[in-house]
Amino acid sequence: MDNKIKIGLFGFGVVGQGIYKVLQNAKNAHAEISKICVRSLNKPRSVEAPAELFTTSAAEVLDDPQINLIVEVIDDAAASYKIVTEALRRGIPVVSGNKAMIARNLPELIELQKKYNVALLYDASSCGSIPVIRNLEEYYDNDLLLEVKGILNGSSNYILSRVFDHGEDYASALGRAQQLGFAESDPTFDIEGYDSLFKLIIITMHALGVYVAPEKIFTYGISTIHDSDIRYAREKRVKIKLVAQVAKVAPDKFTMFVMPEFVGPRKYIYSVDDEYNGVVIRGECYDRQFMFGKGAGSLPTASSILSDIMARRHDYRYEYKKMHYLDRPSYTTDITLRVYVRYKDTPIPELLPFSKIHEQYTSDESCFVIGDISLSQLMEHRQDINATDVFLANTMSFFQNLD
Amino acid sequence: MDNKIKIGLFGFGVVGQGIYKVLQNAKNAHAEISKICVRSLNKPRSVEAPAELFTTSAAEVLDDPQINLIVEVIDDAAASYKIVTEALRRGIPVVSGNKAMIARNLPELIELQKKYNVALLYDASSCGSIPVIRNLEEYYDNDLLLEVKGILNGSSNYILSRVFDHGEDYASALGRAQQLGFAESDPTFDIEGYDSLFKLIIITMHALGVYVAPEKIFTYGISTIHDSDIRYAREKRVKIKLVAQVAKVAPDKFTMFVMPEFVGPRKYIYSVDDEYNGVVIRGECYDRQFMFGKGAGSLPTASSILSDIMARRHDYRYEYKKMHYLDRPSYTTDITLRVYVRYKDTPIPELLPFSKIHEQYTSDESCFVIGDISLSQLMEHRQDINATDVFLANTMSFFQNLD
Fold first, then answer.
1. Across the interface, do B144 and A326 touch by the CB < 8 Å criterion?
2. CA distance A29 to A23
3. ipTM value of the model?
4. In this structure, what is the dihedral angle of CA atoms B71, B74, B77, B81, given to the nearest 10 degrees?
5. Among candidates B125, B120, B61, B63, which has minimal Cα distance to B94?
6. Which residue in B14, B150, B284, B291 has its CB near the most CB atoms, within 10 A?
7. What is the pTM of this model?
8. Looking at chain B, which residue has its C-alpha nearest residue A139?
């Protein structure tokens, strides 16, 4: 790699403009943007950049022999896939923030990195400014890891915060999140848990060395949350958080899912509010570590991208060390969870095969049941619990009283 | 480096025994302990290791051609210096946990690493299991850093926690900390702030690329804390924490010090209790990151040492990148702090040249003053404020309302 990093930037939205600003402040980065590829040259933008930097031709950027790093921060997973794989095939290193594209194509992207001996970095794709991937890859690179659990999506957390701490209603909280630029262009991505899911898949690869495809993972969001759920949580003095987790459930097994959870005040993630992200990393010896920082927004994400850009100065690559470990644990959904399911017309207690029911409440307005059920059964009955009158939340932690 | 890491371990106290246990659990570490050098072979130890591993001869370990990594976790800074520098001169990489030795000799240790092209890793020396050094070196390796501030000493924090949250008296809290193995053999090291100071020096080197010698840094501990201070803090609904910080106070200036601080409930470090450490890293773009984890104890420190051992498998070295930055900021003590000083017989308001006094309280029992004074003046009057009837605490943050 050349002494100076010359960046071909794809995308000049919220994050792309943030990168432009951050690079102007980072004098020691020895990095500059040589070209910016955008869909439309005429879109009004709040950050001014010289007109000659812009192009609408991806080829013009990829063909430029001066450019030695592609930074891709576009919002479209299909276009991102095309750009990133094409750059890797040409041996140009890439920094990408597109978690959906990365999570869906991780095995292929790892192969391409190996085959073309080229780096793809994507720390910014998970938890914005918190260096989760890098730490899992480099620092927690041993057998002692038990669990990674956290709030990985800033916009859904912002919405829940507004609802819980400020008494706002769900719709206006969502509107405000979009206005502030926290929510992606398609809000269902954040709200239905997919953004958290994609991050979780990436985290799991670096935590345990195992890839699990999105469709195999139970994912449940917050869009059907209802006043009665909020009231119930408040009565119990807990908050509802959208939590993603991967946990060892036996020495050779792990599970993972994304689901709202009732979180009590003693847990670290209880106090992760607004657009912040928080991740608890638990290990056999170090007990738990908690990392906390801004998970959304232009500059936090941009500064994370900057860290990836800087890492390229030192030829840093992910080595995916844990993929080569002996006795990698295997993925299971054969675990029992204790869940709260609120419903009205959908006859949840008849539909879901609870192995044990602990609480049941019925009223004209809304009903709920708290019971034990396996994760695989929840997945089989996804249709039932996806009804608009149903909301589900996890009520248990694998490591009770400890996070 | 050989495919398998063969460790010459110096020290088999609390941390050394922890490393031995942790390595037995970490099957993918490909690391084993080949020899253990101890002062006495006959000391009873809670962890059993084969007798043939032990020796009292440092030369026997350093001369062993099989050994390709020295791990040094002894409690004696002078002996640690001898072993570490000798190993580096022989080109043997070293992992060390001795913050006092490292902080005092960092410029020489950096030179030795360069001269003999050999690595010295010491992530375990700062904040036990929290990967602060590695993240400052690798992830926050740009110009955007504004402040690193935190609770870096587990035992003094444990003591303050017992006093504040459990109403214990200071002496019994100290005794309990020592009993639990949190406090070093010489408790003044923890309590008077030196342990935090040494960690802060190491952190500053990796945060800003500048070395500041211990004697140039204002350091004040908690040994003279008094019921009246605790009462005062409780009335104000704050906790007293022993806080170390390095902060940019101008684009080209930074300051650093270790001092008790009144910490309000809105600050992250307020909820860092017991033997935990917590570090806030603040940057221009990412706002703040908070890292939190166990900062003391056998296994947390040992697992941090394990991360350094594993890093050697990938030939990882600190590159001290920021030492080579343009426009490194320079150290200043020419800043104004607002401090609380409690006293009885020492006539503090006469002795200390406050530029402004904001509050003053006198009684037969104890008096205090809250006033503005420069850090350099505090250093000049160190003798006065070190009197046994005096306790000092910082009442301000550089980044108000934000951490």
1. no
2. 7
3. 0.80
4. -30
5. B120
6. B150
7. 0.88
8. B307
